[in-house]
Structure formats: structure tokens, C-alpha cells
Amino acid sequence: LRRYCLNGVKKKNYPAALEYCYAKRLFTVVDSLIDEQIKRDGKFNIWSEIYKFILEFRLSDGNYEYIEGLKRFRPICHETKTLLQILEMYASFYNGRYELTLYQIENIKGLIKDISDPFLKLAYAARLEEVSVNIYLKQDNNIYKARESAYSLLQKNLSVNLNMTALYILALSYMNESYSLSYEHYIKCIKSLENFPDREDELIQNKEEIAILQRYWNKGISEEFQVTDFAKALAKQASLSSFYEHDYYKK
Known about the structure:
about 250 residues, mainly alpha, about 0% strand
């Protein structure tokens, strides 16, 4: 599919090709597809503009520039309307407006039903699950709905990013129920993260959370997970009083 995209795609397949390459982190291929479209038509079309925007803000969804940038787009068809509403949903989620996010998700589900392209329908549904799985567990404390969405994401196997989201949520959901299941999902997530040098912070966070998991279940904390001062304090069973007012740990 990567080679197929680089060799050029038919106009009707262009949106699906962009979404596929983005989901698979083939960002240079997305750029190549956009360049070819501009050469062919002499200007950006709406799909190229949107995915150029997505690439630009892929690590900063929800900031002021992202929200303002979204306002310039006007949908030209049902599919672009659906995608733009998904991008608005991300802004709500990353700004902590969870009730609004869930409301938007329900509206977008209705839009997805009327999308004819099977891949776009699958990919857009996965984008909704990526967000809802976090809300279900972290905001609603609905463990079972979170797991249901997480397993659904894994079954779709659409992208490494979505799989890591699912694995992480499953690891958290089992933390105080099953040491082995939680540990198993954390390790799978860590193995994936190790392939992405730009996600070092997430890798450290996952290792630290395994240290918390091991301490919670009264197990010795493995040296490979003693990656922060907090994790080292847990391993030594030292006082944690110095972390009580820490901006990150006091939560």
C-alpha cells in the first residue's frame, strides 16, 4: 500500500490514502501525495489542506493556533464535514471539555454511518474510540466500557499509535485487579514505544507506572523500572513526603 500510494492514487481513493498513510505514520508519503495533487491540479484541494494542517499540529492538538486554524476550513462534502468535526472533537478533549467531547462523539457516530468508503468509516470510528477509551477510564472510571473500546481498537489494528493507546488503557484498567494482566499490557506498550525516540517521555512514564504496579502488589521493583526519583523512592520504600506538593505527583 505504501508503494501504491507513492505511485499515485485515483482521485476517489485520495482521502483514504491520506488517512491510511497518516495512521501508519508514513508522514513523508502524506507529503508526497499532497505534492503530487498540487502538481496535478495547480493548487491545494481541501483534503490536502486538511492533512497538511493535521501534520503541522499532530503533536499539539487543542492549542490556540490549532483551534484558530480549524476555523478556516469549510467542508465540501459529507466526508470532509465528518473529519473536521473529528478534529474539533480532539480540541475539546485536549482542553479537558469531556462532556462536550462525548456529545461530539455521539454526533460524529451518526455521520460515520453515512460514509460510503469502508476504510474511512473504519478509520474515523477508530479515532472516536481513541478518545472515548481515555474518557471512559480516566474521567468516568468506567473500566468495562474502557476495556471494550480498547479491545475494539486492538482488533482493528489500524495503527501503532492506536494500539499503544489501547494497550496503555488496558494496563491501567487492570492495575488493581491483576498484576500479570496489567504488567503484560505495559510491557507490550513499552516494546512499541522503544521504536519511537521522540516518545521518550511516554516510555519513562510507562516504566515508572510499572514500578508503581510492582509496589502496589508488594513485589520487588525491577532496576529497569527505577527510571525516576519517585520510582527509586518506591523501590527503597523510602518516605514519599517530598512528592506530596510536587506539581506532577501530588495528583
